[in-house]
Amino acid sequence: MNTKLLRSLQIFVEVANTSNMSIAAKKLHMTVSAISQQLRKLEQEIGLSLFNRNTRHISLTEAGHIYYKTSMELIRVAEEAQHQIEQLQETPSGRLRIVAPEGFGGGLLSKPLQALLSEFPKIKVALELTSQTTDVIASGADLAISLQEVNDVNLHCRHLATWDLIVCVAANHPLADLDTVNSTDLAPHAYISHPGMRDYVESQEGKDKTLPNPPRLMVDSVQALIRLTLDGLGYAVLPEPEVREYIETGKLVNILPEWKAPKYDVYAVAPKHDATPVKTLAAVKCLQESFSLI
Q: Could you give all domains of the chain from N- to C-terminal order, each with its CATH number?
């Protein structure tokens, strides 16, 4: 398929999915004006309007709905052809789109991506960080990093790592000055929580106990959770690999080193094909090797 036409179809589909050119532009790493220009060219070639437009919203016309179905099928066929072509190549190459949890933007991906780009100079990576659960197939991603195991006949799910969660405060927080911390000590202070890290359990004297306070502050961004903890707003359950540097430099303190929390697992999820693209296999290998050293 003509690459320019394929790109135009991908832009059209993204705008149709989001109903918002600004959001589509952000996802596609384009300007709104460039997207608008591509859509105008498509409409001129077809001779019909694909979108109903007003100042706040855009929606598909009847012709747009028909064109959307056709575009989705053409894109699917083109991507499948590309996957098959890539299997014929000995060296991984091409654009690799990776979607990862927003928390991984703190540096966890730096080493595996450096290894991938250094070993395979023909690979180009498009990394998208998100706080939302990703539908790998619908998103068009080649690879997604997930904190949950995925059981889907249309997806490959590979275990990458198992990491610890720890309870931390800033070095200047009152709890950091205590030799030992117990549930009573925590009670007067704010518990800052992330929705994915609330099941913290204490294993002590054969009994399981949850943290004593309900969250005083909830935040859906791991990086924001770390920042708020560093700023001394309270204590939080944090992923150890993402705060190890702060622990080592003394900016954060693990106030409950004897408490045991459920560990969390990291997985690589990719669409299932007759043969997995070599670029995806290369990325998974770099992730596994790097994460095993953390």
A: 1-88 (1.10.10.10), 91-162+263-294 (3.40.190.10), 165-262 (3.40.190.290)
Give the whole-angstrom CA distance, residue 9 versus residue 4: 9
Asked if residue 78 lies in contact with residue 6, where contact means CB atoms within 8 angstroms, the answer is yes
What beta strand segments (E) does 70-174 contain?
Answer: 94-101, 123-130, 143-146, 155-163, 165-170
What is the reported pTM? 0.65
Pairing of strands 165-170, 207-210: unpaired
Q: List C-alpha distances in Å: 14 to 25, 26, 138.
A: 9, 11, 11
Phi and psi angles of residue 127, each rounded to the nearest 5 degrees, phi first: -105, 125
Distances, alpha carbon 9 to alpha carbons 12, 49, 58, 64, 276, in Å: 5, 15, 17, 12, 24
Asked if residue 202 has pLDDT above 80, the reply is: no
pLDDT for 90 = 66
- Whether the CB-CB separation of 79 and 13 falls below 8 Å is answered with no
Q: What tokens does 164 get?
A: 């610890």
| Of 238, 215, 211, the residue nearest 227 (C-alpha) | 238
Q: Which amino acid is at 121?
A: P
Neighbours of 78 (CB within 10 A): 17
Cα separation values, 55 from 14, 58, 63, 124, 226, Å: 19, 8, 21, 36, 38
